[in-house]
Amino acid sequence: MSHDTYNTLWKQAHTTITDLLEIEQPEEPPKPERDRLTAFQNVATMYVRYIQIFRKLESSYDQIVHPQKRRVLRHVLDGAIGRILELKGELTGLEFSEFHYFDDILSDLKLTPNDIEMPIPKYFTLERSKILKDREKLLGQILAKLGPQDKDLKEEEKPMSLEESIRIIQVHERARQGRLRAKFMREIRMQEERERQAANRGAPTIEPDTAAIRIQKVWKGFAQRKRTKREREEEMMFIGMTPLPGQPAKNTPQFLATKTESARRVTQEEHEREYQQALVTIKEKLREVEGPEMKESMQDQIRQWFIEVRDATGKFPDYPDEDEGGSAMIFKEKTPEEVEAEMAAKAEEKGKKKGKKGKKGKKSGKKKGKKGKKGKKGKKGGDDEEEEEPGFKLAPSQFVPALAEGNTQFQGVWKERDESDNFSQKHDAELIKEDKRKEVEGEVRLQVDELMREELKNLKAAVERDKGKKGKKGKKSGKKKKKKGKKSGKKGKKGKKEKDLTADRTIESLYEELVQEGILVRCPKVHMSDYLGEYSYLGTTLRTANIEPMPSLHDVRRVVTEYGILPLGSQAVHEQAPLVKSLLLTGPRGTGKKMLVHAICTETGANLFDLTCTNIAGKYPGKSGLAMMMHMVFKVARQLQPSVIFVGDAEKTFLKKVPKTDPTDPKRLKKDLPKAIKGMKAEDRIVVIGTSRQPFDCELKALTGCYQKIVLIPRPDYASRFLMWQSMIQKGQGILTNHLDVSSLSKVTDGYTPAQMWTAIQQVLTDRRIQQLSKRPLTSVEFISPLARIDPIYKEEEEAFKDWFEITPLSKAKAAAMAEDDEDDEDDKNKKKGKKK
Hints:
Protein name: Dynein regulatory complex protein 11-like isoform X2
Domain ATPase AAA-type core: 583-714
Number of helices: 32
Pfam family, one: AAA
Oligomer: single chain
Number of strands: 6
Keywords: ATP-binding, Nucleotide-binding
GO molecular function, one term: ATP binding
């Protein structure tokens, strides 16, 4: 697509932002909304519209090549991501659920579920590609030194004895002879069967013409069916319903679009390099050309100020300190409020001078009386705050000001800017000059301040010599003492930090040690788009009927993106967005819990630390060893953020009773892990993710106290299974034809997880079967046999997860809110009945 396409997307996004800012920043504060359903609809509508903005801004930022536009876009994009996360928190508080359904809102806005698919910004990894490559290279070098596969290779390379060799040859030779013998016997039996049938039939009784007609009938029917099938397949290919089998990958529209996007990213890097060079050259040019003129004009203005103050007060003024802004404070344009404050201060000073010393006691008494009145008023104000109208109000946002600032910048600079002469979309030199002129002016002002301070000092010295007055040194010494006091205060604060157990070691050495111990592991490349799942089309209907639906895998993907990926990818978002320190993914085996952890690491470029009890068993023994391990993990995680700390089988950490036969000491992290999570701050881009197959075996209070958010991953529903079968068969190099009834296969595999379905596909689509696909198409029946050997997830196990989830804090809060709503409805009905009577 062209530059104009992405500029248009940017403009459309800002049009929507302008509309939303009118709602977000009203002239009068809105009244609280008493109806929880109405409040949810309002917040959900804003949430959906912000997702649309996010999608447009992400596409624009990824493909716009203009370096100055990209800076404005990035600021607004981070603001949109942060606002989405804030609204997500509000929706969770209103519905007491992590999963939300927007069917009615999508219908009103004329959108499809794909229009609100949560994108993952590509800049999370693209802008750190060099760092990630270097880190991957370092990790590969450390693993190569360790040689983890050496033992396995040695076992495989053991020489075979002569007896074993002869035995293997004999087995294969006997098998070959047996197959040949079976083949000969089968041919003999078939020949005998044909001879027996021919003897029974006797001489042919049908006439030649009739036989020819029958042959023609059968042949014409076969030929027509084959022609019709081919024409139908060609039609489906023409309208894009089936992929073209013979088309090379390089000629597909998808490949060409990807190639164009990659070329634009290369152009982005070139334009950014030119922009950085222009920043230096333009600043140097401004300093050379305009610097001397600026210096002269500033000196003239300051000298004029000296003379004006001398004429008005009879003495030279004190020069403002650097901390106060230097000479910039002299010519600063003051607002009317600042002028009023200065006038009031002067009036107070005059009043104090005129007042007598004897009246000080009375004044202090009056002030105390006023304070008492104020205290009473304060109490009344507090009562008013407590007696606020009941209802829901949006919490103040940390990101709306950033959105408003970016929108103002877009409207003022870029919306109506004529770029007809900038076809290649390189940097705008005039904008650079405007920014750099201020920097040059600031640098020149510092030089001028030094010169003018010296000049003022000489002027004062000359006047003092004439008048015989001493300089004012007491004030300066007093200021210095104050500054020293501040420094000592800062030193006192630094002493409160935790002790660094590895202060004498570098991060590189700690990183290498954790890799050698197998705690810092290499993450497989898995993208969030590989986690397949379809939108839940019955969610709103069931929830309206007060039936809590099980989330679809699409919903799980959205929640994990919101809690795990979007905050980790951007430092600006993570510092101000609602902080999610830990996340628990729970569900039956094979539902993709570990795959989601790997997807979070891949999409954000995060390090993966594995603190599973089986992985850390026998490593860093003892209490001091455990403290050292936790210190090293979190220190490296903070230095090389973003980082993901993975805890597999998280329920084992909080087991009620540990089996005596378990050698892994699963409760080892029970105290240290919650303590470490509690110490995480907003500037630490770290998230602790636990996975659990049997959360009902552990102490619920301890588990929910450790993990802030809990996401239940169910078995895939019919729509998700249908999508998975289609995608997985194609991924396994299978071909989808009319012979393969995917709908029936999806219906039959109710209860099977994605991992089990993929196992069945791998067993069917062997190399030999893939070669036969052109002659013998794939059928649904072939998958039944491998699936029959796998135990599915039965309803009893799913019900156990549902029952456990109902006693989690969020589900309990939801049950309490629903009970409260039912009571309110009954009260309203009783009031109506009373009025009728």
